[in-house]
Design a protein that fits this description.
heterodimer; A: 4-stranded mixed β-sheet; 54% helix; B: Rossmann fold; 3 domains; two-stranded antiparallel sheet; 15 helices
Chain lengths: 513, 436
């Protein structure tokens, strides 16, 4: 069919691109995406950038606007070196979860690549951002750019007023706690408009000026100090235990100025904004890869892409979804593009041509026929962990030849716990799903108590799962940062999650400044 | 249809502010690293880009991380070939953190990045305590003058070469046979005259033909522009460095046993600073290294700083050697001659007199500038502070200092003491320094 198509039906020919061709390709791809895959996307803004600008974007965590901080300079030097030495190529595109959806295209890309990237980012990622529950509930695509603009300006003003060093100190400390600066279980409030933010800030300042139990200067009565019944009440008033350390410090630290609280809030909001992305790597990349692969093949079948361009597209596609085995020197973990694409193609297969095994494992979708609906639902409702738990099929486990390796620190050997056989499928599926569960993999650290009446000692608790402790040096350094934000002694108790026994306790008084 | 924005022409170096913040943060460590490089590198290389190792202190970004060597984990890996459930695999040696835990963090510490010349000089100047104006002067690069160099197809509108452009346009109009205004006028005239005359069939046909011709010519004129962008030429200017004279710099150093590591390091910085100063002012600088004990010889830079030699100390031998080299290779009318001498002040008894006569006799007349530093112990610094008496060489040179305005001398104990030696040099206007 492709060979019969006349030259004029081609979307582009040759490797050079111009804005007219880009636009025509986008229109054709978008029409196809809506018609064939029923995608639903934000409007798109495509920006052409140079490699230098791509490196800039890399170092400011991929955002078009970012406040200034030395760590971004350090990352830039690092990325720049890797790129120059040829250690790492640059991404062909970068896409930002915003409304309109911003897609960066590299100027060096050939037209075939630009078409591939358009399908991948401007439609695949875009659809995912707009429709996935996590993004819908936890991020606000419409407000993020104006918020970053506000953040950048605010930090510049703080630097002018309070000096670079003071601002840097707060940012350093806040960055150290970024991982502990997100709400994992309840939805964060929406980003408010500029005016509302102003109002909230004023209210915050008022609150600080007015009464807070932390600032009580009268000596406590003996009776009150002994009264253990106060415990639950105090914890309740401070909303303890609290998993979001940055939030707790922002609201309750006795030493921070209002502007310092606002900076912590900025870091916290950005951490929260990226939290869904980190939970949906496989799905997000899988969705985008599935979309570009499907759309490019359709365009080729309709004779709108030439064979030469298709070959180039396929070569890049196969580079992206390359998955070496665990004993290959190139192995560096599971490739989310490859896993995502394979799972989604597998869902398509199960929906249309199921085997008896699939009917056993997936009674509700096997042979259901309408694979588009199944995929759209999966994209909307899941994050990596639940997606894998729900949809990883035995056929795919066999294809990937997955195995589970048990690794206990005190044993000289690793134990092969399960392989791709009848007894192992369920275990492999659960283990793979768990490995994408951020909540389970990041250290679980919470604020459990504050000694309000005494020395304002802040107590944190680390729930130790499976005996996995914290790295000593970075733990001490991070505790120092918390101390800086809290102003008084901070201690971290490691508690075994199963037995409830305290393993050890580390306090800032034991750590040299 | 999406919105397209071309960002390629946006200002570059968006992350420059971040880089500056990073350099400031790592300042101490970078400074040490640059100082080491300048100490071990060649004098002439001080003034260029340097690659430095990523500093570790002060630039770590800690966070709570799971320790690799504790607890029980389950890894999931693809590509099983021959394992069955229950197999035991010995852990690979070292680290012990599991067979191949995915996502090993690449070490960021072990890489080097390049500091620009400006950044290097900033760090180098910092503990020399140079005044800001001098820093600015030293960083200033050679002056350039634009000089006409033919024509170019690109350029700024102010540089359009009108004559050349019109000549191109003319040639193109002829080649493409653009209808001239006179041809059109002639046709118009003929139409007018035909229309005035009583109409006949022949005349009407003629008018129709002429109008068609006129129309064709006008369309052609519209298509072939009078001046097309391809015609436009710009005057091209080549930046030419402003011509400057040559300079030669003599580095004289006592290398007898009394000069230790610290003394040589200070001496080197003293030489580097003079070299930077000369480099700014002269196109071509040669450096001659003369070391001496009781004998003087010209050596290369490596030998100068790193080879030790034993023997007494006779300073005049170095001055004689310098005189000999000037006479044979650097005639004073072609070269600006600068000399920098570093010593610990030791000299063979009676030789100082000879130094005085050598300098008074010929050398000071040949030299643009002669700087002498005596490197002293930090503990002695406050004793010698400002007193006139000192080593025999110091007393001898003091006499020269009184007599010659282009002679400078100083005792240095720390890097910060070096600059005052050159104060006079930097204070003067460039014009008065240049000869002919």
């Amino acid at each position: 069919m492709a060979r019969q198509a006349s030259k004029s039906s081609l979307l582009f020919s040759g490797s050079d691109w111009d804005f007219k061709t880009l636009s025509r390709a986008y229109d054709a791809i978008e029409a196809l995406a809506v018609e064939e895959l029923h995608l639903d996307t934000y409007p798109v803004q495509m920006e052409i950038i140079s490699s230098q600008q791509m490196l800039d974007a890399y170092s400011s965590i991929g955002m078009p606007l970012m406040y200034r901080h030395w760590s971004f300079g350090k990352h830039f030097l690092h990325q720049d070196l890797l790129y120059r030495k040829g250690g790492r190529g640059l991404a062909y595109e970068l896409v930002i979860n915003s409304n309109p959806c911003i897609v960066y295209l590299m100027e060096e890309n050939t037209m075939a690549l630009q078409a591939l990237v358009t399908a991948h980012a401007a439609l695949g990622h875009n659809h995912f951002f707009k429709n996935n529950q996590l993004f819908k509930q936890w991020t606000d695509a419409g407000a993020i750019l104006s918020y970053l603009d506000f953040a950048k300006g605010y930090i510049v003003r703080c630097e002018e007023r309070h000096g670079l060093a003071a601002v840097e100190a707060v940012l350093d400390s806040a960055h150290a706690l970024m991982d502990q600066g997100v709400f994992r279980y309840h939805r964060p409030p929406r980003l408010s408009s500029e005016r509302q933010r102003e109002g909230i800030r004023e209210r915050l300042e008022y609150e600080e000026r007015s009464y807070n139990d932390l600032w009580r200067t009268l000596p406590p009565s003996q009776q009150a100090a002994n009264d253990k019944d106060q415990d639950p009440e105090r914890k309740k008033s401070l909303n303890l235990p609290e998993e979001n350390l940055l939030y707790f410090l922002e609201k309750n630290s006795p030493v921070l100025e209002p502007w310092q609280r606002e900076i912590i809030r900025i870091v916290r909001v950005i951490a929260q904004y990226f939290y869904p992305q980190r939970q949906t790597q496989v799905m997000n990349e899988g969705c985008a890869t599935f979309v570009h692969y499907t759309l490019m093949n359709m365009l080729f079948d309709r004779g709108q892409i030439s064979e030469g361009a298709m070959l180039e597209i396929l070569r890049n596609h196969s580079n992206v979804v390359f998955q070496p085995a665990f004993d290959d020197p190139r192995f560096s973990g599971i490739n989310p593009y490859a896993l995502g694409l394979d799972m989604m193609q597998d869902i398509k297969r199960i929906s249309t041509k199921p085997t008896a095994e699939d009917r056993d494992w997936f009674p509700d979708i096997a042979g259901q026929g309408n694979w588009r609906e199944v995929l759209l639902d999966a994209w909307a409702d899941h994050r990596d962990e639940s997606f894998i738990r729900q949809y990883l099929s035995p056929a795919l486990i066999r294809k990937w030849r997955f195995f589970v390796l048990g690794d206990a620190a005190d044993q000289p050997h690793c134990l092969v716990a399960s392989i791709h056989d009848e007894r192992g499928y369920a275990k492999i599926r659960a283990t793979l799903a768990n490995s994408y569960d951020l909540g389970a993999n990041r250290p679980d650290i919470q604020v459990v108590d504050v000694d309000l009446l005494g020395d304002r000692h802040l107590r944190l608790q680390h729930k130790v799962n499976d005996g996995i402790l914290l790295e000593d040096a970075s733990r001490d350094a991070t505790l120092r940062h918390i101390r800086r934000l809290w102003g008084y002694e901070v201690s971290l108790a490691a508690m075994d999650a199963e037995t409830g026994a305290t393993i050890h306790e580390r306090s800032t008084s034991q750590i040299a400044e | 249809m999406p919105i397209f924005i071309d960002r390629r022409l946006n200002p570059k170096d968006k992350s420059l502010g971040n880089r500056q913040r990073f350099l400031r943060r790592a300042r101490e460590e970078l400074k040490r690293s640059i100082r080491d490089q300048i100490r071990t590198g060649r004098i002439a290389d001080a003034d260029s880009e340097h690659a430095v190792r990523m500093p570790e202190r002060g630039t770590s970004e800690p966070s709570f991380n799971n320790a690799r060597d504790s607890g029980r984990r389950q890894h999931i890996l693809p590509g099983n070939r021959h394992f069955s459930a229950g197999d035991l695999i010995p852990k690979p040696g070292g680290g012990g953190g599991g067979a191949s835990s995915p996502g090993d963090k690449a070490s960021e510490d072990d890489f080097r990045f390049v500091l620009s010349r400006e950044e290097v000089l900033d760090l180098f100047f910092e503990d020399l305590e140079l005044p800001d104006m001098v820093k600015l002067n030293l960083k200033e690069i050679l002056a350039f003058k634009p000089r006409r160099a033919g024509f170019a197809a690109t350029g700024s509108p102010t540089n359009i070469a009108v004559g050349r452009t019109m000549r191109n346009s003319h040639g193109r109009r002829i080649a493409l046979r653009r209808p001239k205004q006179v041809e059109l006028d002639a046709i118009l005239e003929e139409i007018a005259s035909l229309e005035e005359a009583p109409s006949s069939t022949a005349a009407r046909q003629r008018i129709a033909a002429l109008r068609e011709e006129l129309d064709r010519l006008e369309r052609r004129r519209r298509r072939i522009a009078y001046v097309d962008p391809v015609d436009i030429r710009f005057n091209r200017f080549d930046p030419r460095p402003v011509p400057n004279a040559n300079a030669v710099m003599f580095c004289l150093m006592d290398v007898s046993g009394s000069m230790g590591e610290r003394e040589k390091d200070l001496a080197k910085r003293f030489f580097v600073l003079l070299h930077l100063f000369l480099k700014r002012r002269y196109d071509r600088i040669e450096i001659v290294f003369i070391r001496h004990t009781h004998l003087a010889q010209e050596v290369d830079e490596e030998t100068f700083f790193y080879n030790t030699q034993s023997g007494g100390t006779v300073v005049s031998t170095a001055l004689e050697e310098m005189h000999r080299i000037i006479a044979s290779r650097y005639p004073a009318h072609d070269w600006n001659i600068y000399a920098a001498q570093a010593s610990d002040g030791d000299n063979f008894a009676g030789d100082s007199e000879r130094c005085i006569s050598l300098l008074n006799g010929e050398l000071m007349r040949l030299c643009q500038y002669f700087a002498y530093v005596e490197i002293i112990d930090e503990r002695e610094a406050h004793i010698f502070g400002s007193t006139e008496n000192g080593t025999s060489l110091w007393r001898a040179y003091n006499a020269i200092d009184q007599k010659w305005p282009n002679f400078q001398m100083s005792r240095i104990a720390t890097p910060a003491d070096i600059y005052p030696v050159f104060r006079q040099l930097f204070g003067r206007q460039p014009a008065s320094l240049k000869r002919a």
